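Most newcomers find our protein records easier to grasp once they have seen one. Sequence and backbone structure share a record, each on its own labelled line. To make this concrete, we reproduce a full record directly below:
***
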Amino acid sequence: MMQNEHDDSIIDVSGNTDIPINFGSDLHREESVPEPVPKPQYDPDGWKIGKKYIRKLSLNDDQSAILDRLWFADNVFNEIEYCRVQILKQFLRATDYLRTHCIPVNKSYATVIEELSEIIVCLQYNYRKESLNYRYTYDAVQTEIFNHILKLCENNVREVYGIKRKINTDFNYTHPDILHQYNRKIVSRLAVFLPENQSQILEADHRTNIILNENNTGRWKTKFETIKEDYSNTIAFEREIFRLAEVNVRNPSQDTIFLEASKFVAKHDKISALRLYLHYFDKDLNNTTFERKQLTRNIQKSLFTTSEQLSDFEQIINEFIATRNLQAAIEKASRLYLPKRKKIVIDRDAVENVQRQHSGTVALLEEYLKDEGEEETSGEDELTIHITHHPTETRIHKYLEELNLSEVQQEILEAFEKQSFNIPQSEMATYLQSKNLFMGSTIDSINDLCFETLDDVLIEEEDEYFTINTDYYKKLLNND
């Protein structure tokens, strides 16, 4: 029997009507696709100084454009970010001074730098303004002037930060008329302005001082002289010495700071001198070579009035070398000058015998009770602190053993370290002559031995100096 085609109980599955199936809103929603992160675009001018420091120095467009024309002859000093910022700030102040205070003779030029650029192009290259080469050469000369001013500013910052060695500031042009005009219009003006403007250069911060002292091992001496001149009391003096030592923590001459401080304060405070001398020993023991420098004879005589005091201090030092307990050694040294209580031993039989005798009683008692500690010290011509050698101390090789450096070669490298890795060639020649050695072959031999380790030349010539890259030097040290 055929069913009614309109029977409501029959479901139409013919596909004529699409009925979506609802699986729930969460499953039905399509997953969101993350938007691709745009890759940073390469800026071909990103290396330029103006672009790099536009925010850090709050530069305007003109200042940024000028700094974009600069480049640093990279060296250990201007590679320090803090120093580079101070150099650039000094440069901006210097060029601003030239623009506002040095009026060009030819009023058609906005600044004296533009005027000088025109003079140099005409005198050096003899280009006419209408020529094709004029514009390019004019811009190049102006850039050279800016970079020469930058060098003058770097030397000014170096002076403020106590760096004695200056960079070469010879001008590129030797034409007499050019030099005369340039010195008159630029150099002579900046020679007055830069020293007067040194107060605008910020003092080096803690981190920068550490780096500067590491690369200039004698820099601490300037600050030390100031500390001595300002001496008022022992507490303030020691505080300043420890601050100076803190910023010389990576300076191989750090121990010498305490030694020189001990020598100076000896005439003011004996205990302070002993404390600082113990700190010298503490730093010296941490060095690869233990020098054990003595105080001068006159200072020792002023510190130790008796041989007993000298002997006691010798014992304190030798115990410290064995135990490395600095605080205990300082505490013992602070009690060195306290009067010692004498132990008196009375012979009872002798006293009874004296009591039986009526004559000479007082004299005999004085003889028994006499302070045996009073000894004559006259005739002592020399005082030396004797330091006991401990068998546990072993020789530590400062440089890598595989380098096979001779004793003289090691002495030369140590001389570089003590002189901030810069030695005048004349000084090196004198030293090697005293050793009956030729300068060229000696320097080459060191470079040859170190080349395999560094894959580069260690000792290089720069102007009239021999120099060593500090990073290369560290690679030669035995850090075991």
Summary: Residues 49-200 form one domain. The longest helix spans residues 132-160.
